Amino acid sequence: MLKITDLVKRYGDGDPVLKNLDLTIEGESVVSIIGSSGAGKSTLLRCINRLVEPTSGTIELNGTELTRLRGRELRAARRKIGMVFQSFNLVDRLTVMENVQSGRLGYISTWAAVMRRYPKKDIRRAYELMERVGIAHYADKRADQLSGGERQRVGVVRALMQDPEILLADEPTASLDPKTSEQIMGLLRDLAGELKLPVLINIHNVTEAKAYTDRIVGMRYGRIIFDDTPENLDQDAMDRIYSGSPHADRSGDMKEAS
Amino acid sequence: MSGNPSSVPDTWRKPPFIANPFIRWTVYLGVIGYIVWVGASLPINWQRVAEGIGRAQRIFGGAFPPNFERSQLLIDGFLESLKIALLATAGGVALSIPIAFMAARNIAPLPIYYLGRAIIIIARSFHPVIVAIIFVKAVGFGPFAGVLTLIVYSIGFVAKMLAERIEEIDFGQVEAMRAAGAPYLSTLFYAIFPQIMPRQIGLSIYQLDSNLRASAVVGIVGAGGIGATLANAFGRYDYDFALAITMVIVGVILISEGISGVIRKRIG
Amino acid sequence: MNSISNQFGREDWSRYTPKQRMQRYAAFAFCALALGWALGSIDVIWVWVWDAPEQMGDLLGRMYPPDPTNLGDILRVLLETVNIATFATGFGVLVSLPVAYLAAQNTTPNRATLWLGRLILVTSRSVNTIIWALLFVAIFGPGVVAGILAIMFRSIGFIGKLLGEAIEEIDKRPVEALEATGASRFKVIVYAIIPQVMPTFWAVAILRWDINLRESTVLGLVGAGGIGIILQGAIDTFNWPEAATVLLAILALVVLGEVVSAFLRRRIL
Asked: What was the pLDDT predicted at A248?
């Protein structure tokens, strides 16, 4: 269970990006966070695994308080939080297998990491997951030789190799074409079911959010103003989430799309 | 690999850098063999090296604190280095322009092209110190040998870069001039020079900076400037003065690098 | 023509505004003054200058034909020169790795280490190989050890600076991704930073090896081993035909070095 209480993030002296935010995710639900650019979606996700340092508040994952952790304890906690990125963030010049195994870096010895002597069970697990998402035949290819959709599958497998207790996805489909993007969303939903894993997805595309997730959280200016099932996301709620933002025109597109 | 999940492989090796195993092992063994052979064959007197530790202490002990008392000697040496660098840059850059045109494939006829390339290769291949000892023998000790040396050194770099720039120029402009009935020299001045001038100025400033560095070392073999002062100090075991000179050289090089960087940024 | 110039109302045109023109004149004047000062005060005997072409011609005449009697010795020492350059490049590369790590803003542990790294780079780069060689010959006596150390010390700054810049320019997103997996600092370096700087690393190492071949030919002139010793000997004894052979051998070595480094660059990158 992920429990965020009274979370504040402020850069410098400016207006806080996250304002006293509370959010609880239980069980193995797939939750999407929608909102216009600058609403604080990405900051929220990055506060959870501390890529961004929260200013105040608490984040609790399965009983561990994350915001006070340092050094080794922080790394141990991060192992349990998988993350998928908008631009995949693969190491282009390494092979797909090395990229996938880099999800295990928090577990294996430094020597094994440097020499690429991965444990047998990790290799088997990697092949199983790669098989599952359809990229096993690319194991020896360099990551930059793959297409966008394939690269994002590598990113997903890397996150799953961590054996995570929660999966965060920061705009996982924003760099992909519509068809590939649907495939990745479907994959995330199915994997969440198969691995009994809660998934938290930042997403711009409201149609996909409605189609692939169990619960939608709407953010506006650092606050959660909508939190319900996709069926209850009506036109009125959409207007509240996207209105008055600097990107009002974008919300227009979204309405047409939905 | 196969679609059957029960036969999932549990071993993986990073694909080797050289795919062919025969070539791979030949390269590995070759490298190891080379290291062993060189390690064994280099004429190294280990006893003499071991004595060096004590000597190093004496030298560094003698070098601190650096001695700036003979600052007049230092300043004179430096001004001479600066003069050498200035004259060599002017001469080298001026000579580089015709040589670069000779060595540009798109302008020069083939025999002249080869001649131009040969001049550049020879100028580039010899370290300025080697050029300097030859000039010192030919024209005697002193800054004139230094100027000649650095002219050769400048040609090696400036003419090469300039020739490459000329080979990249946009020939549409040359054709436009010719079509307008412009004579050869006008074509040169209006269609080619404007395209290479910015590069040429940047190169000249860069070369002045390089020449100033190099002028500090050609003096060691007798071609004038601060290098001569430094070599003398070393020869007379005046390590404190040598350290002072070295510190000044480093300081001046840093300043000149900074200035040349700023100028090139503003021009480019 | 007339109609057009009437239309625009002006017939004069100049490329630069008056201010730009003044700046250009000032720059020209400054250059001319500097050259004038240098020419007027440099300590040369002008008679020798006018005599120089004749002297050079005379010297070249005495070099011809090159004397190949000692060619075997020359080639043997030439190989030693290559070995000095190669070994020094190898050691220099190894030492420059941690220095580059310290001198790159995004990897250095703290400000003190950043300045330490930069100090090492600046010292190494600003002191010429020959000056390093003078120092090491004074310490370790004449020989290849001084030569290897001199070239190595000069290479550290060159390689370290370029490598440090490459580290500062890497794509930071994979680094962030691996930090998010809970990997330690060292593993992040091995998996996200090193693969990204490998191409620069090889390019810089090959480039420096090529430069070091040239530098190692002059070490002998200050007693630090290599072909320079034979050259110095030939010149000191006025054995110009042999000096010519040595010079040709150096020319061949440097050209060959360029061919080899171009080949390696193509194969590795």
From this structure: 43
Q: Is residue C255 part of a domain?
A: yes
Best C175, C178, C181 residue to mutate vs chain A (most A CBs within 10 Å): C181
Query: Measured between beta carbons, which residues in chain B are less than 8 angstroms from residue A139?
Result: 12
Contact status of B250 with chain C (Cβ, < 8 Å): yes
Q: Which of C176, C178, C187 sits opposite A110 (nearest CB)?
A: C187
Amino acid at C24: R
Same domain, C24 and C137: no
CB contact under 8 A, A137 and B1: yes
In the numeric block, which tokens belong to residue C72?
A: 């075997």
Contact B11 A127 (CB under 8 A): no
Nearest to B31 by CA among B18, B44, B46: B18
Encode pLDDT of B20-56 as tens digits. Answer: 888 889 999 999 999 999 888 877 777 887 888 888 8
Confidence of residue B99 (pLDDT cuts 50, 70, 90): very high
As a whole number of angstroms, the distance between CA A127 and CA B5 comes to 9
Q: Is residue C48 part of a domain?
A: no
Query: Which residues of B fall within a CB distance of 8 Å from C261?
Result: none
Q: Which phi and psi angles does B86 have, rounded to 5°?
A: -60, -50
Q: Which structure tokens are listed for C129? A: 């190989």
Q: If you measure CA to CA, which chain B residue comes closest to A120?
A: B10
Token output for C144: 């290849």
C148 and C247 in a single domain? The answer is: yes
ipTM given for this complex: 0.85
Residue B1 reports pLDDT greater than 50 = no
C47 inside domain: no
Q: What is the pTM of this model?
A: 0.83
Domain extent, residue C24, equals 1-42
The pLDDT value given to residue C12: 67
**Has residue C64 been placed in a domain?**
no
Among chain C residues, the shortest Cα distance to A98 is held by C191
Three-class secondary structure of residue C64 per DSSP? coil
- Do C126 and C203 belong to one domain? yes
pLDDT tens for B224-259 read 888 888 888 888 888 888 888 888 888 888 888 888
Under an 8 A CB cutoff, do B86 and C34 touch? yes
Determine the topology of domain B73-267 in CATH: MetI-like fold (1.10.3720)
Q: Do C176 and A89 touch (CB under 8 A)?
A: yes
At position A2, the amino acid (one-letter code) is L
Total number of domains in chain C: 2
Distance in angstroms (rounded) separating the CA atoms of residues A203 and A28: 18
The domains of chain B are located at 73-267
Q: Are residues C29 and C104 in the same domain?
A: no
